[in-house]
Fold this protein.
Amino acid sequence: MLIRKPPAIPNSEITPEQIYRDRRRFMTAGAAGLATAALSPILQAGLQPDDTVTPESIVTQYNNFYEFGTDKSDPAAYAHEMTTDPWTVTVSGEANKTGEFAFEDIIKGLDVEERIYRFRCVEAWSMVVPWMGIPLKDVLAQFEPTGNAKFVEFETLYRPDEMRGQRGFFSSIDWPYVEGLRLDEAYHPLTLMVTGLYGKELPNQNGAPWRLMVPWKYGFKSIKSIVSIRFTEREPVNTWKQLQASEYGFYANVNPKVSHPRWSQASERRLPNSLFSSNRMPTLMFNGYEEEVGHLYAGMDLRKYY
Ligand code: MTE
């Protein structure tokens, strides 16, 4: 159901060898635009027959990471100025185990999986990306959230010395960048804490050393370079909602029927198609993951909770 796989092979028994075989297949075929239909079923939840893996050069050079500037090319140009080792994460709020943890200690012993996900930005462009990561649930459960924890809030590094976008007088963002999820969204098996791309370490511009990936939500939910995890009773106020609540909500589920006030969300531009291309594709409810996540929002008015 959640991550389709051959029923005969439980997740736990999928060997690294199988994952590597698949990886080698899409990496060698990548330049030619491999049809993702050729991949094993574990990698296919949400993928559509025409989806092909986006070239790595696009994924690592066309970025949103406002801490380094607002141009798509700024993160690739400047994110090397961010120090990612050592990396300390503060865990706080409604959990039994809180405090400061070294990044390596948090992920030690947790299995990294490879997942190919559709990725849809609120700006109406999209990609298909082979992420490497740890199910967020495995990361969070070790801190033993209490019964009061209904949400989890994340913060990005605040370090103006190394993040030139945080130094600007004219930046309207109240740093650090904040995002959050309901705890059941965070515990959903599709939600990943990403540590790599294309079988390699995560580049700084993509959110090293770890960033969130929630494939059924607009890309701004996928907060990068996380240094704080807080379990809360109340819904966190995320950066984009704080900036413009009439345009960006807390849920940010991909929804072709609810337009952004300034543009339609009914279709999308699949990179590397240019802005001027007429070749757009229809946007899918929950970005194609409706079967897996629709139940999380049963009975909710998705026009109100956008
Ligand atoms: N995280 C932080 N800290 N700062 C940002 O500006 N941008 C978001 C999200 N995470 C952003 C962020 C947006 S709008 C998108 S679309 C994705 O990161 C882009 O991820 P990518 O550059 O890896 O494609």
